[in-house]
Amino acid sequence: MAGHQALAFLLIFLGGGIGSVLRYGVNLSSASLFGPSFPWGTLLVNILGSVAMGLLAGWLAFRLEGGQLFRQFLATGVLGGFTTFSAFSLDVALLWQSGQTAAAVLYALGSVAAAILGVFAGLAITRVVLP
C-alpha cells in the first residue's frame, strides 16, 4: 500500500506541475490577446478547468475506464494545478445531483464569500505584520 501511495503522490506532483504550467500559459496568452485590464486568464482557466472536470468525471463514472491513479493524475494533479475551481464546481454539482440542493447552494455561496473574505483578511494581516 505504501508503494501505491508513493506512486499516487508522484503522479499528483507531476500532474500539478503540468496543470500549473498550462494555467500560466493561458494567463500569458490571455493578457497578450485581451490586455491586462480584466482577469480573462483566470476566468478562462476556471471555465475550461470546470468543463474538463465534468468531462473527466462523466467519463470515469459512466464508462468506468481508468483507474484510481489515472483519476488522481488528471483530476487532482493536472486539473488541480490548472484550477481548483474545477474541483469546487464538481463538488457543487455532485451535491446538487444527489438532491442536496440547499447544501450545494450554501457550499457555493459560502465558499466564494469565505475565500474572498480570506483574501481580505490575509491582506489586512500583512499590512499589520509587515513593515
Q: Secondary-structure blueprint of this entry?
A:
Blueprint: H1 2-34, H2 40-62, H3 68-82, H4 85-97, H5 101-129
Q: Biggest sheet, in brief?
A: none
Shape descriptor: globular
Proportion in helices: over 70%
- The strand count comes to 0
Strand content: under 5%
* Rg value: 17 Å
Give start-end ranges of low-pLDDT stretches: none
Secondary structural class: mainly alpha
Order of helices and strands: HHHHH
* Ends distance: 48 Å
Number of helices: 5
Mean pLDDT: 90
Walk me through the structure:
Helices cover 86% and strands 0% of the residues. The protein has helices at residues 2-34, 40-62, 68-82, 85-97, 101-129. The mean pLDDT is 90.
In short:
This protein has 131 residues and is mainly alpha-helical. 86% of the residues lie in helices and 0% in strands. The chain is globular and about 50 Å long.
